[in-house]
Amino acid sequence: MADPEALEMALKKHAGEVACVIIEPIPANNGLLLQNTGFLQFLREKTREYGVLLIFDEVISGFRVGFEGAAGLYGVEPDILTFGKIIGGGMPVGAYAASREIMENVAPVGPVYQAGTLSANPVAMAAGFATLTELLKPGFYESLEAKTAAFTARLQDFCDQKGYEVTFPHVGSIFWPTFTRKVIHRSDEIDGSRMDYFKKMHLECLRRGVYFGPSGYEVGFISSAHTDSDLDFAAGMICESLQQVFEP
Ligand SMILES: *Cc1c(COP(=O)(O)O)cnc(C)c1O
């Protein structure tokens, strides 16, 4: 929760004892909770001031909001970044990255031992490398962003016209169907009682061949593999499903 005063108080009170602050810069593991850039910048300034490492968990946001993730999107440079999911191009890969100074603490150069049975597995590395190569093609993110914006705008327009209390916040290729008109920044602002609407929409969508993640706390992703006609079909079915939910 973005509370600059509480953050500063905690860093002051525990000065010298806090190793790091770790956050999802775009929290997307429990709804899509868009944060204001000012807080991330404040976090960067304060962690630097108190000698605390700033870690961005970009497992979800990484490669979905741009090649440089949320750090690049917001222009805030953390000390350590973590990645997963997309970076493996469908194969199981996780990665972390940091400045040379920090990475030289890791074995074999430094004293921090880190190893895994499948670390640097050649098949997974090849899949990840191929994916990242695709992502770097000119216009890739512009196209992905435009598709997501058009898709969510169509759904939003439909709900607005019908007066349904649904919004579709989105960033990069990430979107979230949420059954409220309020802008949600914190997980405690999510009204659990509204999840029944999600459950109904989910079922109606399944019946029409559109598969959402099976929880209203999960976000959705648009992929470069989605064609305009896939998205057109999906949006049409989602609109029909919403109508079935609100006007059965
Ligand atoms: C999936 C996820 C993780 C865990 O990644 P693993 O590769 O399964 O360890 C960490 N953080 C976020 C935000 C995630 O969505």
Ligands in the model, by name, code or SMILES, are:
pyridoxal-5'-phosphate
Strands side by side in the biggest sheet: 1-2-3-4
Give the overall shape.
globular
Query: In sequence order, what are the helices and strands, one letter per element?
Result: HEHEHEEHHHEEHEH
The CATH superfamily of the largest domain is: Type I PLP-dependent aspartate aminotransferase-like (Major domain)
What is the CA-CA span between the terminal residues?
Answer: 37 Å
User: Per CATH, which architecture of the largest domain?
Assistant: 3-Layer(aba) Sandwich
Integer average pLDDT: 96
Helix/strand/pairing class, anyone?
alpha/beta
Number of helical regions? 8
Largest sheet: 4 strands, mixed
What fold name stands as the CATH topology of the largest domain? Aspartate Aminotransferase, domain 2
| Helical coverage, percent range | 40-55%
Rg: 20 Å
Word description of this protein:
This protein is of the alpha/beta class and 248 residues long. It has 2 domains: 132 residues, 3-Layer(aba) Sandwich (Aspartate Aminotransferase, domain 2); 107 residues, Alpha-Beta Complex (Aspartate Aminotransferase, domain 1). 41% of the residues lie in helices and 9% in strands. A 4-stranded mixed beta sheet has the order 1-2-3-4. Strand 1, helix 2 and strand 2 form a beta-alpha-beta unit. It is globular. The mean pLDDT is 96. The protein binds pyridoxal-5'-phosphate. Pyridoxal-5'-phosphate (PLP) binds next to loops.
